[in-house]
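Annex B. Sample input.
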Amino acid sequence: MSWSDGGQRTSHVGLAALIAGLITVCTAGCGSRPPADSIRAPRLIALVPSVTESLFALGAGNEVVGVSQYCDYPPQARRLPKIGGFITPNLEAILALKPTLVIGLPTSADLPEIRVLQAMGINTLMVDDGSVAAILASIRKIGEVIDRRSAAQKLVTQIRARVEAIEGRLASVQPRTVLMVVGHEPLVAVGPGTYLDELIRLAHGRNIAEASNQAWPRLSIEYIVAVRPEVILDGQMGTDSPAPARFWSRFPSIPAVRERRIFGYPDDPTLHPGPRIAQTLELLARRIHPEVFAPERAAQ
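Annex B, continued. Sample output.
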């Protein structure tokens, strides 16, 4: 996941007319719940990858009828109908799938498309994926709403156990200063307030962008050279280790360059908040403190 929807919203005269008409029609009571004997089988739509992953992880994959254009995990999600993004949902596509529940992020709550769905009596649920605690809370909340409470609790317990196990392995190591890059030209880094910043700290790293007040700050190479990160995680280069080394070799005074602690990382799952956060944490921890995992890695 890219974390942002990425697209520019466009004005659609037809959509505006549809919204106005539906709101007018539905003011007579479309929001009322149907009788218990007429409740349909669940038909779930996810507006964001973290929700899609959570639904499948909870065993509700066969109830998912539509996902966002960015939902690509698990592989089954790629075959499902696409309904736009969490900031630019396609109302017509959503209505055509006749959902019983649409799940998105708080940033989607005030969208006119969401208000139309609510006016039509279609249930909506907004959950947060901006931190580890929020992700776990959203899994529990989704599990409660879709009647999978025990599965949600089991999943949360498993995630916590794996996170605690990783933290235990790192308990005796000193934090290293870390630069985590998500893009070049300009250099865009992981900043404070993001779930990745939290995972860096859990992996015993100190984010050199933490002084910024932006979630995705643009950093100058002069600043990076001056701050001297000990580890560079360069997502622009993917998992091709030689590539980031070539880019950064022009700056040999940076400890990460000098000590060859420059690593790529895969977009998936790293940039996807959701039930795989423990997997992402271990991925980051192995790059920031490879010496802690070296014996295990050598045995594999």
